[in-house]
Amino acid sequence: xxxxxxxxxxxxxxxxxxxxxxxxxxxxxxxxxxxxxxxxxxxxxxxxxxxxxxxxxxxxxxxxxxxxxxxxxxxxxxxxxxxxxxxx
Length: 88
Prior knowledge:
By secondary structure, the protein is mainly alpha-helical. The protein has helices spanning 15-28, 33-40, 44-51, 60-69.
């Protein structure tokens, strides 16, 4: 597998945005969806729906496996402008 991903923060706005980033990285690694799904242990249908922004209820475990397969890390960093605290 060819490693070719940028090493800078890329904020993700929503699940369709995450799907686009996953698709771009998969293509950069010259993997087909079936190849990537087999390496990850998720279904081709899940992979396709996630990349297409049609899958809204994917588990965090599946996302982490997909990111690991693609050589990507999930990092939690503070926003530059903090969000106001939630009050009940």
